[in-house]
Design goal:
With about 475 residues, the protein is an alpha/beta fold. It contains 13 helices and 15 strands. The protein has 4 domains: about 120 residues, Nucleic acid-binding proteins (OB fold (Dihydrolipoamide Acetyltransferase, E2P), Beta Barrel); about 140 residues, Rossmann fold (3-Layer(aba) Sandwich), CATH 3.40.50.2300; about 30 residues; about 50 residues, no CATH class. The strands form 4 sheets. The protein has a 5-stranded mixed beta barrel with strand order 3-4-5-7-6. The longest helix is centred in the middle third of the chain and has 36 residues. The protein starts with a strand and ends in a 28-residue tail after the last strand.
Length: about 475
């Protein structure tokens, strides 16, 4: 008789007697039986082991092996769970994996379908941290050491918008040196935190200077304190590479003073706390004002010091100079001496002249001699008519030229060439249409007569008025010659 499989103690067995020609099981039936048995017996397990052979398929699924000193177990983590991992799985990392144990009939293997995986213990995390630190340092990602701007106009902050960190930073900046702050909200813990932090750092660096949103002069990547697991997002490779490649200087303020992350090594400067990062980013405005006041006071003293020293030297030299009376005493005495000598000299000269005049005699011969000498000087000068007629001829020629020019510029001269002159009732020339429109009666002067007309009606004919208007002019000009 054929043997039918039966369940005994959770195992599928075939009841067959020895020597019977029982019906055999198919491979698929046996595989399914084994799969049900394993899944029922080990519905959920939590394993600790070292990752080995980690690889991520194009579909997003994660395949690996968990091993210890004596055994090895295949593992698979589907796409959704792999995307939620808080770290990057690598060979050699000791992890704790939770999931369901099952079999893979296609290869006759049993494996664990991992639903959750975390690094096993702080020691393993620190070992991984040190391994990554050495690798990133060898690549030169920790070489940034740029100087921070002294007084940045805009500061970009990458942190959680709801935590106490951003409030501490804003409060400290407002106390020390108020600046414009741009906050890029990100997750700072858990799945997706590392990707958001890296995207924020790259986003600030990609902003253009002079755009609608000002580009920050300084970045602060901040987070509060926590365990190694809580801060692990700032140890991820994406965050480290984004900070190292940032064109803007970065201050890392992750955790407390005793916490250290790889972001601290990649940043240009590390602050022990977020508050300390704000203090490091800007100076104290009051201290700057006091420094400026001190420098201004020293500048004034430096400017006044030479004047004060010069005044002191001038007063000392003035004190050594003789007085005005002392300087004028010698000159006054010499002036008095010269005045006396001049007075005596004039008296002597007048006395001598009086004495000579008393001795001299006035005779006609002297007068006649002087007259002859004067007459001889006049004999050589001849008074000719050219001296009088030449100026008169020059002025006459100039007068004739002026008369010719006056004749050419006479206002009636163009009338002979067909032009006409418009006059008002008083005989004054009108030179514009608005002025002509205001007149009730106009007179048009031609070369041979004057015609009266109205601005709104045409002239009835060229009739000479009994008494044509005569242009007013000044007093009658007299003849030129």
């Amino acid at each position: 008789m054929p043997a039918f499989p039966e369940e005994e103690d959770g195992a599928l067995v075939a009841k067959a007697k020895a020597g019977d020609n029982s019906e055999p099981l198919t491979i698929t039936e046996l595989s399914q039986a084994l799969k049900r048995t394993v899944e029922d017996r080990f519905g959920f397990v939590r394993l600790r082991g070292e990752l080995s052979g980690v690889k991520r398929a194009a579909s997003g699924h994660l395949y690996c092996c968990l091993k210890d000193e004596g055994a090895l177990l295949d593992g698979v983590m589907w796409k959704g769970g792999a995307a939620r991992l808080g770290f990057v799985p690598e060979d050699g990392i000791e992890v704790i994996a939770s999931g369901k144990l099952t079999t893979f009939p296609g290869r006759s293997k049993y494996q664990i379908v991992i639903e959750r995986m975390e690094i096993a213990g702080e020691g393993a995390l620190l070992a991984l941290l040190e391994k990554n630190r050495q690798r990133f340092a060898a690549e030169g990602l920790f070489a940034n050491n740029r100087e921070l701007p002294f007084a940045p106009r805009v500061i970009g902050v990458v942190t959680s918008p709801t935590g106490a960190v951003i409030r501490d930073i804003l409060h400290r900046l407002a106390d020390r040196f108020p600046v414009h702050v741009l906050v890029w909200p990100v997750l700072v813990q858990g799945n997706g935190a590392a990707a958001q932090v890296a995207a924020a750092v790259r986003g600030f660096g990609a902003m253009e200077a002079g755009g609608a949103i000002p580009r920050p002069d300084l970045l602060i990547v901040a987070r509060g304190g926590g365990s190694v697991e809580d801060l692990w997002a700032f140890n991820e490779e994406a965050v480290v590479r984004a900070i190292a490649a940032s064109p803007i200087p970065v201050i890392s303020a992750v955790g407390h003073e005793t916490d250290t992350t790889l972001a601290d090594f990649a940043a240009d400067h590390r602050a022990p706390t977020p508050t300390a990062a704000a203090e490091m980013a800007v100076p104290v405005r009051r201290e700057l004002a006091a420094t400026l006041d001190d420098l201004a006071y020293r500048q004034r003293r430096c400017a006044i010091r030479p004047v004060t020293l010069g005044r002191e030297r001038l007063e000392a030299r003035v004190g050594r100079l003789p007085s005005l009376q002392q300087l004028l005493q010698t000159r006054t005495q010499r002036l008095d001496d010269l005045s006396e000598r001049l007075r005596r000299g004039l008296l002597d000269r007048a006395g001598k002249g009086r004495e000579q005049l008393g001795k001299a005699r006035l005779v006609p011969t002297l007068l006649l001699r002087g007259f002859r000498e004067a007459k001889g000087g006049l004999t050589g000068v001849r008074l000719t008519s050219a001296l009088v007629t030449r100026p008169i001829a020059e002025r006459s020629q100039r007068l004739v030229s002026l008369a010719r020019v006056m004749e050419q510029l006479h206002p009636d001269r163009p009338l002979s060439r067909g032009y006409a002159m418009v006059l008002d009732a008083n005989g004054q020339a009108i030179t514009s249409a608005p002025a002509a429109a205001k007149e009730a009666l106009l007179a048009i002067k031609f070369a041979d007569g004057i015609v009266q007309t109205s601005p709104t009606t045409a002239a009835s004919g060229a009739k000479r008025p009994a008494k044509p208007p005569v242009p007013k002019s000044g007093p009658e000009q007299s003849e030129l010659f």
